[in-house]
Design goal:
This protein has helices at 36-47, 113-118, 123-130, 137-159, and strands spanning 12-19, 26-31, 54-59, 65-69, 86-91, 166-169, 177-186, 193-199, 209-210, 213-214, 223-226, 231-233. It is an alpha+beta fold. The strands form three sheets. A five-stranded mixed sheet has the order 2-1-5-3-4, with helices on one face. The protein has a five-stranded antiparallel sheet with strand order 11-8-7-6-12. The N and C termini lie far apart (97 Å).
Length: 246
């Protein structure tokens, strides 16, 4: 009929949920056709409060208190609950804030390394059976041998380099640099043998100091440490970069 107004209400409503025993806010969607008693049963799974010890308060979208939801037989839709309204759960069971989120008081299960090693259904057991990673003795031995051989190469190369020698530095992925050897030997910042170089140009990283320890002297950004195998010693005269040209 002309002039008749039909009001269509969404059968579900999205609400915000808070509780006296949980510090965070969450969101849930409920059917407006469920009873308040049914709503409490669903909320019990969310906030952890027994439905029998639960009081509900309804707040507006702007968090202004509207009324209590206290009739268990009434339908949720009979209350002025709109999307983004807030339902606050008051716990009368004696629960404390954070009781269900604070795990610091939860007794932790601990298993000794020896006991874990005996388990047959663990990730470690699987890796042992499949000989993966550190449980592949042949692969581990090969890596150790390769590392030792490489370290011997680095030491031999370091022994052939003298402080004061001119050199070229070839680091993969970087342009070739020319400079003077300032230091040869081990260092505190990383294991192995290292060569300290003063470049002819400011292509380095420091002034000879690494992690607070001075290994040699040079201008800032002219110094660098490289592995001995990256250094070639020879007659590499310092280039004239035309600094005196007009």
């Amino acid at each position: 009929m002309d002039g008749q107004v039909t009001i269509v209400t969404n059968p579900t409503v999205n609400v915000r949920l808070t509780s006296t025993i949980i510090s965070f806010e969450t969101q849930r969607r409920f059917n407006r056709g469920i009873s308040v008693a049914e709503l409490k049963g669903k909320l019990e799974m969310v906030v952890g409060t027994p439905s029998s010890c639960m009081d509900l308060e309804l707040y507006s979208v702007s968090d202004k208190f509207m009324q209590k939801i206290d009739d268990n037989d009434a339908l949720l839709g009979s209350y002025p609950v709109d999307d983004d309204c807030r339902i606050h759960v008051i716990d009368r069971s004696g629960g404390q804030m954070g009781e269900f989120t604070d795990v610091s008081k939860v007794e932790k299960f601990e298993l000794s390394d020896e006991a874990y090693d005996k388990k047959t259904d663990s990730a470690r057991s699987f890796m042992k059976k499949q000989r993966v990673g550190r449980f592949n003795e042949e692969e581990v031995a090969k890596k150790k041998a390769d590392l030792a051989a490489r370290e011997e190469e680095q030491k031999a190369a370091a022994d052939a380099i003298s402080v004061g020698s001119r050199c070229q530095v070839h680091v993969p992925g970087q342009p070739t640099k020319v400079g003077t050897v300032m230091y040869v030997g081990t260092a505190d910042f990383k294991p192995g043998f290292w060569v300290g170089v003063k470049y002819d140009e400011p292509l380095g990283k420091h002034d000879g100091i690494v992690e607070g320890k001075r290994y040699f002297d040079c201008e800032n950004k002219y110094g660098a440490f490289v592995k001995p195998l990256s250094v070639t010693v020879g007659d590499f005269p310092e280039e004239d970069y035309g600094l005196d040209e007009m």
